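Here is an idea for our session: we take a single protein and study its fold together. To get us started, please write out a protein record for me. Once you have written the record down, we can walk along the chain together.
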Amino acid sequence: MSRLTFDEARALHLDATVTDLHADTAKLMDKVGFDISERHERPMPRAINYVGHVDVPRLRDGGVAAQFFGFWTVPYPERGCRRSVDTQLDALDRAMAARPEDLVWALTPDDVAAAKARGQIAALGGIEGGQALESDLGSVEHFARRGVRYIGLLHFSANSLGSPAKGKGADPDQGLTAFGRDVVREMNRCGVVVDLAHINRKGFFEALALSTQPPMVSHTGVLGVHEHWRNIDDEQLRAVADHGGCIGVIFSRRYLGGASIEAVVDHLVHILDVAGEDVPALGSDFDGFVVPPEGLEDIAALPNLTVALSRRGVPDRVLRKILGDNPMRVLADIEPVAWRAAHAAAAGEGPDA
């Protein structure tokens, strides 16, 4: 297969369902008034570029159809985390209300396809860290009814669900707590995807064994390419594949083990080789205080990754899976039950009306 040019890659993006599983932009919108509808310039060359990676014009430049916004909180103490996620959701709602022609809420692949056909970018939501639940099982349904599609059980600290891969309270011998197991069951009931980013290895496998639905690892690197506590091993890759899930590769030099776009390709190709073509996906962690590799400085540069993958011999059919078909398949397998029930009730169609 010949290498795609940037223009050819971008044409492929415009035809495919390009999906990024994780960007922290909503926090900037909530806390510093970042206007996602306006174009923001990249920092000068060689400047540290921790945030400011995503806005609507650059999403369009990158040919992105669907962007997952990750809602993260500082869990010290855990109180106030639920409210923090709600205010990030509110900020995203305000942005969509202000410019509905640009950005629209989506929950299903059909929603994403309809948005794309209308020329809109589909916005989806995911929570980073179960501390946002504040030890209240009812918070799962609360967030599901607001449209949240995945919940990451852990972040950088232990919480009432379990233990992180590293951070405050990390314990490799601690699996899911009783509450954590209840949360996984409740997520299955409500139609919320279980996200296994940041959780320790013991909790990772316990959650997989318990969940009846396909998982995601929204943003991670892989140990088979670079040794780092944040990255997951080949057994974990195969386990996600066996459960019908997908794995988003992070665009952070620290976890990739390299400063060029080729490091991202290395991680994606390793997942292909170990777990198969139905597993790899994109999980940038843009706007999450990461330093992206050269060639992927922001979301507009995403076609460069498609060019680099094609240079490694990844065919168009598999490129489409990596770019978005794999996460869309997971979403298609998990009906947003609680959200549909809430909207049916609001419309006077359901038993709660």
The beta strands are 19-23, 66-72, 103-105, 121-128, 148-152, 193-195, 216-220, 246-249, 280-282.
